[in-house]
Every structure is written in structure tokens, then in C-alpha cells.
Please model this.
Amino acid sequence: MKTFTRLMIAGAVLGASGLVHAGATLDAIHKKGFIQCGVSDGIPGFSVPDKNGKQQGIDVDVCHAVAAAVFGDAGKVRFTPTNGKERLAALQSGEIDILSRSTTWTSSRDAGMGLVFTGVTYYDGAGFMVNKKLGVSSATELDGASICIQAGTTTELNTSDFFRSRGLKFTPITFDTSEETAKALQAGRCDVITADKSQLNAQRSQMTTPSDFVILPETISKEPMGPSVRRGDDEWFSIVRWTLFAMLNAEEAGVTSANVEAQAKTTRNPDVARLLGADGEYGKDLKLPRDWVVQVVKQVGSYGEVFNRAFGPETPLAIDRGLNNLWNNGGIQYAPPVR
Model:
């Protein structure tokens, strides 16, 4: 009886702490029939609406991929735009099921805010962009500059640390959105804007005359960015994490949206057979169908396809993959195996 009482008390404590039992998020998603995905308020390459209002970008594709895994239909997603200040609260409150919007994985966010990061979709670093008229070629020349910064981002602390460690001074001017920050630089309200370098590329692409602006060479921080979910539901965490891993493994194996169905039927590679559900029942561990990876890659693509669609040479951003290349191609993107 004492043991039973202790178990009842423990259960009550867990319930009071707000921890969600495994499977609660997935159950709720199946019940409503779609995934609610938190994205940015408009950062090209990551998440931005096209001329028809359809969201595009790597963060958007992550959510489409999870929907393909869960429902077999990448279209069963609804998007909630969030800015830097409100994004974490939207996930904590349950307004969204996944936060997939250029958010840096840090210790305080991962351990102290009731959420957990599932992986890294983009390795980045913070930097500075200036109008060429300012006449500087290094961030060390920015002493006394006015700097526009998006509020609620890691960039605020990064900038403060950079200037303080070098005995330099600056005047911060904060804005709620990336768009407002870029417009302020273009209008001459500040000397510099600072953000992750991928975001600076995106902001420059939207300037009236992009060639008037230059991104300085310094990278002042580590910014690993990826999707996060609420802490306490291990099952949902695993689904989102392994969806990203599946896309990375698909690229490494040469599996694409064009050949995935044929590969699933004819491959003689044991690793590819396990990945695509032709051998084993690895989807069961995630409560997903046997062909879930086939659906992800067929409908959304491998990681390489998604990256190229967002940042590749045919896009306005044309960002080199760099660290975001696979581990066997000069980068650090690496996924555990399906086995």
C-alpha cells in the first residue's frame, strides 16, 4: 500500500510539473489532423511567404517533412509566423507543435525553458553588415558605431561580448523583426546591423541596391540552429529528430526525391534498405509507417535537396554550404544510422 501511495504521489507531482506523457503531442496532432509549425516572420532561405502567400525555406521544409513522416502527406501543416521575442513562448504555451525558425541551440534554451532541440539544420555564426559608404573593412573598426539588432535574439549578447572584450563601445538600437532591422540600416538610422550571417545575406538580398552593402569578414559566435519541441514528450522529440536524420542519411546514400521509390524496391545496400523500410521494422520504434522515410524524401527531399532549394547557387542567396556539407564532404553535418 505504501508503494502504491508513493507511486500515486509521484504521478501527481509529474502532472503538476507540466511534463507531458510520451505520445500526448502525437495523439493531439492525429486528432486535429495537422502539425502547427512556428516559423519566422520572414527570413529568406529559412521561412518566407512567396508571392502567393505559400511559406518557403529550409525551416518550412522541416515541418513538411515531419508531416510526411506522420501522415504520409507533407501538406498537413499550418504555419504560425513568430518574431524573435515571441517564438519561445509560442512553443512553451502549446500554440505550436514545433518551433522551426532560425533559433540558436543554447544551454539556457535547451535546459531552462521547457523545450529541447532535436538537431541542427543550419550551422551559422553572427556577423556584421555595413553600407560600403561607412568605409570599414573589419568589425574592429566599429568603435562608437550605432548597431541595429533584432530583439530577443542571441545576437544581442554576442555583440555586447564582442565589443566589451575588445574595449570598444557601441550604441544598440533594437527592433522586433528582421525586416525592420534591415530597413533601418538602409534608411541610415544605424551604421551597422548584426545578425547570423545567413540572415545578413537574406537581408542584403532584399535591399533596394544589395551591392551597396557588405558583410564584414568576422564571425563572432557559434550559432547552431534547428527545430525544437516542448520538453517532456520523448516520442514526439524522437519523430522530429529522426526526420532530420533521415534526410541527412538520404543525402549521404545518394537517395533523392527522384529515385527514392526505385531505391526502396531495388537497393542492395543494407543501410539504404533499412533507411527506406525495405529491410526491418524500424518505423515501429517511432510509431510511424514502414515507408515513412520514403514519403519524407519523395515529397520533400533529402537534406541536400532542401538546402539547395533554400540557399543553393540558383537562389538569390547563393550561400556556400561550408559547415553544412556532409561530414564526408568537408562539413560537419552527420546523422546516426538507422539500424
Summary: Confidence is low (pLDDT under 50) at residues 1-22. The first strand starts at residue 35 and ends at 39.
